[in-house]
Amino acid sequence: MAKALEIDRLTVSYGRNVVLRDVTFSVEEGEYLGIMGPNGGGKSTLLKAILGIVKPSGGSIKIFGRSPGEGKSKIGYVPQFSDTDRSFPISVLEVVMTALLKNGLHPFLRFGEKDREEARRALAFVGLDGFEKRQIEELSGGEFQRLLIARALASKPSLLLLDEPTASVDAASRDKIYSLLGGLSKKMTVVMVTHDLTAVSREVKRLACLNQTLVYHGVPELSRKTVNALYGCPVDLIAHGVPHRVLENHDGGGCQC
């Protein structure tokens, strides 16, 4: 099967601070990959490198066989909720249509009916039909996150990148988003950064664990060895408010978990 994404010995540094070191893995077309790791482990930096926002200090990235600059037109990107200013006076429909701009914003910009129709289709797909005229500040957290997904889908990407898509939403909205992504993964390649440990047991088909280096890449199972490498000690996973131990008991050894 063809590769949607190929990462080969990728290293990214901010000055003298190495954020990613010698990371190598690939994602096949149609695969649904989850990326996990601690804060500061390099997950968001990896997405930015794929998008061409940050320049690697070593290694290479290929998107459907092309460099990030050449392959970015095939990517849809959903940023972190906290990175978006919701006070900006813009309607839901206008947000989605900005994904269709070829030459950026300018004073005499006019959207055509074709752009509006594409945006409406994307909104309907994520369950936001009828929301077109609302201002974005009127949306709930879950609605706003689905709006960002609709915007990413409007350009008809082959690869969808998501950075913590459920970090700031309630449980009901989280489940809607996971169901939506599960359906999308049958139509395109999906790569999702997440802190949500329950996500790996849902639709995700492969898992990559990052803590500056690639700790694990394979089927979505969290072993004691993998969690040790990521966080320094085993943890107890809590799912849907009910304690659910998926790792063996441990004697602590001085760790606080």
3D structure, described in words:
With 257 residues, the protein is an alpha/beta fold. It has one domain: Rossmann fold (3-Layer(aba) Sandwich), CATH 3.40.50. It has helices at residues 43-51, 68-71, 92-97, 113-125, 141-154, 171-184, 224-231, and strands at 3-14, 17-28, 32-36, 58-63, 75-78, 159-163, 189-193, 206-211, 213-218, 238-239, 242-243. A six-stranded mixed beta sheet has the order 5-6-7-3-8-9, with helices on both faces. α4 packs across α5. The longest helix is centred in the middle third of the chain and has 14 residues, at 141-154. The radius of gyration is 19 Å and the shape is globular.
Radius of gyration: 19 Å
Report the CATH C-level class: Alpha Beta
User: Structural class, from helix and strand content?
Assistant: alpha/beta
Task: Examine the coordinates and then state which fold CATH places here, giving the name of the CATH topology.
Answer: Rossmann fold
| Major beta-sheet overview | 6 strands, mixed
Instruction: Please give the count of helices.
Output: 7
Spans of 5+ residues with little confidence (pLDDT < 50)?
238-250, 252-257
Strands of the biggest beta sheet: in what spatial order?
5-6-7-3-8-9
In short:
The chain is of the alpha/beta class. The chain is 26% helix and 25% strand.
Helix-strand blueprint:
Layout: E1 3-14, E2 17-28, E3 32-36, H1 43-51, E4 58-63, H2 68-71, E5 75-78, H3 92-97, H4 113-125, H5 141-154, E6 159-163, H6 171-184, E7 189-193, E8 206-211, E9 213-218, H7 224-231, E10 238-239, E11 242-243
